[in-house]
Amino acid sequence: MSSLDRVKEIAEKIKSMEIRGAANIGRAAARALMYYAEDFDGNFVEEFMDGVTEARKILESTRPSAVTLFNAIRYVFKRMEGRDVNSLRDSVIKAAKQFIENSEKAIERIGRFGAERIPPNSTVMTHCNSSAALGAIITAHLQGKDIEVIATETRPWYQGHITVKRLAEEGIPVTLIVDSAMRYFMKDVDIVMVGADTVASNGAVINKIGTSLMALCAHEARVPFIVCAETYKFSPETVIGKLVKIEERDVREVADPKEFSGVKIRNPVFDATPPEYIDAIITEKGVISPYLAYEIIKEEFGVSL
Ligand code: RUB
């Protein structure tokens, strides 16, 4: 067995979306590096470093739009230290565990802060399947707020099905709609809550395709549009001008090209919502304006230009 086997296995699961959602992807990347360190049975520092660099490359090539993947890896690499294999191994395992623990705590705090924003007897709309947004909704429900949820099915992967099943399990009244019905139902909605894959330095939020459309509908209807995002969803690369790459997946997820000869099919799976349509971003460090994204990036990652 090679020390990269479990890394490759996790990378494959991220690519095929067996592991999906930005928080899960970040934690899985940290776990993969931990497995690499655990499985490494060589004696040479150079060999360990070559392997962990290869692991990074494999993981980073899976999904481009979730900065959590890159930030989780960055977190572990920053804390990797030691002059021998044993200390390097221990530092990687410790950092990966710390990242996973911080991420779980962040979701719990966002749940609490987010629940504060959900009024009693209200209807919440959500898109896709975000553990951070669901945390807030479920916490509000557990506080006895008597809420209901309208959730989009989220083509083409139908992550909305996971969302509605989870909410129904919690006993929350929930309605499943097609994505294109979001404007039709917006008049019944008190607040929109979604997650994020990446927050850029200008406050734009990259999330599942259709999110920016939902923000536009919410804006038109004067419905608050709230994003739930841990601070490791903020992208340091965007400070130096890099754009977040929008992942385009296999068109067969949309339709079988053989049935549509002469037709071009496209499948971008994320979009960017500009900050002017976002009322607040709920992070584990508090509720902020999207225009404070740069400050968060500076504090979390230290910006060296
Ligand atoms: C998932 C998606 C989610 C964010 C936030 O897309 O867009 O809204 O990742 O999720 P995909 P979380 O299914 O393509 O990965 O709050 O769980 O990090």
Quick tags:
305 residues, Four Helix Bundle (Hemerythrin (Met), subunit A), Rossmann fold, 45% helix, 3-stranded antiparallel sheet, globular, 7-stranded mixed sheet
What this model shows, in words?
The protein has two domains: 5-106, Four Helix Bundle (Hemerythrin (Met), subunit A), CATH 1.20.120.420; 118-301, Rossmann fold. The chain is built from ten helices and ten strands. It has 305 residues and is α/β, with parallel strands linked by helices. The longest helix is centred in the first third of the chain and has 33 residues, at 85-117. The chain is globular and about 65 Å long. The strands form two sheets. It has a seven-stranded mixed β-sheet, sandwiched between helices. The mean pLDDT is 97. Helix 5 crosses helix 6. Residues 20-23, 128, 130-132, 157, 159, 195-197, 207-208, 269 line the site of ribulose-1,5-diphosphate.
